[in-house]
Specification:
There is one protein chain. Helix content is about 35%, strand content about 15%. With about 350 residues, the chain is an alpha/beta fold. The protein has two domains: about 150 residues, NAD(P)-binding Rossmann-like Domain (Rossmann fold); about 180 residues, Rossmann fold. Helix 8 links the parallel strand 7 and strand 8. Helix 1 packs across helix 12 and helix 5 crosses helix 7.
């Protein structure tokens, strides 16, 4: 069985190789591994009409995988043309939560299962989100920038300039998926009141987590910190806009470590520049990278990071292991743990 590995500068090819060799031990002598790497994250991800968030030339990838039985990738593109070029292809592994860089429909039409790695970076995003909350509430980023430029801002100790402790504040979590649920235990030691809006989560689950399930308007009106964790869908695109930011209390903070399309950034800029919101911690943007002259980049009450909330050594290693485990399951004829296209299952393979 020939496995074509498309690594990058985050999920390195050797991580895939090590994970495969560890999990397919009984058949290791029957496997042939070939690998290459694309230049992400040094080169930003792009989109086209077929797939999203990828780096690499589909034509070059098609040539690389033409005789492969399996493809493992992170951000490398697996388009219809790539799938059609790989005449022996039996399974595709994509080590990210949503395999948006894979044409899943084309794979399904060929009877090729696509496995992914849900939750592989959840812990990294949880910790990063908490860090942004602390950074914004205490003005850490702004104090650093001033001091690094040679300005000692002793006046930050003035009552009207100091920040707020997390202790006792109300945080609103928009969306209560794996990341938001994982964030809850980190917020509770601060004695925070935790609100959530997620119509797909049961009241029983909210009670189990010890969070208050409220409607969207109530969450916005009562939270001191609003942190968004929804998936991007037609219904959630720009769900935070002019009306929603106006519903937030004056002096509150907004955190986005999810996805840029969830937010109307012009509306956010207006709310921040007018002083209605005290600040924002933003890891994702409508356009990535954002334009260098984008007004939001110039605001003093914003902490900005280049979509790195999910970036940790552990999340890279974890993603490679999760897909390697499912390749091992496939080779051994066991059920797949994380298959996104169940209609493609039922294949037999030879190694």
């Amino acid at each position: 069985m020939k496995i074509a590995i498309i690594g990058d500068l985050f999920v390195r090819a050797q991580l895939f190789e090590a994970a495969l060799l560890d999990h397919v031990k009984p058949l290791v002598d029957q496997l042939t591994l070939v690998s290459q790497e694309v230049d992400w994250p040094d080169i930003p991800q792009i989109h086209n009409a077929e797939i999203a968030e990828f780096v690499g030339d589909p034509a070059e990838i098609a040539d690389f995988v033409h005789d492969a039985d399996a493809i493992l990738t992170h951000v490398g593109p697996v388009t219809r043309s790539v799938i059609e070029a790989a005449k022996n292809l039996q399974i595709i592994g994509c080590c990210r939560g949503g395999p948006v860089n894979v044409n899943v429909a084309a794979a399904t039409a060929r009877g090729i299962p696509v496995v992914n790695a849900p939750g592989r970076n959840a812990q990294a995003v949880i910790e990063f989100t908490l860090g942004l909350m602390l950074t914004e509430c205490r003005g850490i980023g702004r104090a650093h920038s001033a001091l690094a430029s040679g300005l000692w801002q002793g006046e930050l100790y003035r009552y009207q300039r100091t920040g707020n402790e997390l202790q006792g504040q109300t945080v609103g979590l928009i969306g209560l998926g794996a990341i938001a649920q994982g964030l809850v235990p980190y917020l509770k030691p601060f004695g925070m009141r935790i609100l959530t809006f997620d119509p797909y989560v049961t009241p029983a689950r909210c009670a189990e987590l010890g969070v208050e399930q409220v409607d969207f308007a109530t969450l916005l009106a009562e939270s001191d910190i609003v942190s968004i964790h929804a998936r991007v869908t037609p219904e959630t695109t720009k769900m935070m806009g002019v009306k929603e930011f106006a519903q937030m209390k004056p002096g509150t903070y907004f955190i986005n470590t999810a996805r840029g399309p969830l937010v109307d950034y012009d509306a956010l800029y207006a709310a921040l520049s007018a002083g209605h919101l005290a600040g924002a911690g933003l890891d994702t943007f409508a356009q990535e990278p954002p334009p260098v002259d984008w007004p939001l980049l110039k605001l003093p009450n914003v902490t900005l990071t280049p979509h790195i909330a999910g970036a940790s050594k552990e999340s890279a290693e974890r993603g490679a292991v999760i897909v390697a485990q499912d390749i091992a399951n496939f080779v051994a004829g066991r059920p797949l743990a994380y298959c996104v296209n169940a209609a493609a299952l039922g294949l037999s393979i030879s190694v």
